[in-house]
C-alpha cells in the first residue's frame, strides 16, 4: 500500500478533480483525507495513481510507502502506546490517518524499522 500526497489548494473542487481522475483510472481510495490544502490517500498502486494524476496535469504528487497497522481503537490509550513504541525506536513519522477498516496508516521514513518496532510490541 502507498500514500499519495497531492496538492488540493481549492478544497472540494480539488478533491473532486482528484477523485474523478483516480476513479477514471480505476484506482480506489482505501482511506485518507485533506488537511491545510494537501490531500493524502491510501492506494494499492502508488505508481498508477501518480501516473494518472500527472497525466491529468495535477503536479507535485508524492508517493510514499506506508505501514498499515491494527489498532484497538476502542481501547483508551492505544494510540499513545503505539506512538511510544515508535518514538522509542526513533521512527520518523511524517503523518498518520485511518483507513476504511479503522487501521492506522503510518507515513514513515523507514517502513522496515516501523514494522519491527510494532512487532516488538509491549511498552517501551
Instruction: Tell me the helix content.
Output: 25-40%
Uncertain runs are none
Largest sheet: 6 strands, antiparallel
| Count of separate structural domains | 2
N/C terminus separation: 27 Å
Please tell me the CATH architecture of the largest domain by its name. 2-Layer Sandwich
Output the CATH class name of the largest domain: Alpha Beta
What integer value in Å does the Rg equal? 15 Å
Describe this structure in words.
The chain has 124 residues and is α+β, with helices and mostly antiparallel strands. It folds into 2 domains: 2-64, ACT domain (Alpha-Beta Plaits, 2-Layer Sandwich), CATH 3.30.70.260; 66-120. It is 35% helix and 29% strand. It is built from 4 helices and 6 strands, in the order βαββαβαββα. It has helices spanning 12-24, 46-55, 78-88, 111-120; strands spanning 2-7, 31-35, 38-43, 62-69, 93-98, 104-108. Strands 2-3-1-4-6-5 form a 6-stranded antiparallel β-sheet. Strand 5 (93-98) and strand 6 form a beta hairpin. It is elongated. It starts with a strand and ends with a helix.
Amino acid at each position: 500500500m502507498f500514500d499519495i500526497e497531492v496538492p488540493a489548494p481549492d478544497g472540494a473542487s480539488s478533491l473532486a478533480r482528484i477523485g474523478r481522475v483516480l476513479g477514471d483510472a480505476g484506482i480506489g481510495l482505501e482511506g485518507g483525507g485533506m488537511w491545510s490544502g494537501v490531500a493524502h490517500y491510501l492506494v494499492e498502486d502508488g505508481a498508477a495513481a501518480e501516473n494518472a494524476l500527472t497525466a491529468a496535469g495535477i503536479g507535485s504528487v508524492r508517493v510514499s510507502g506506508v505501514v498499515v497497522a491494527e489498532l484497538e481503537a476502542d481501547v483508551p490509550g492505544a494510540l499513545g502506546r503505539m506512538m511510544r513504541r515508535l518514538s522509542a525506536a526513533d521512527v520518523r513519522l511524517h503523518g498518520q490517518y485511518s483507513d476504511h477498516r479503522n487501521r492506522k496508516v503510518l507515513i514513515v521514513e523507514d517502513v522496515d524499522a516501523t514494522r519491527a518496532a510494532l512487532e516488538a510490541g509491549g511498552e517501551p
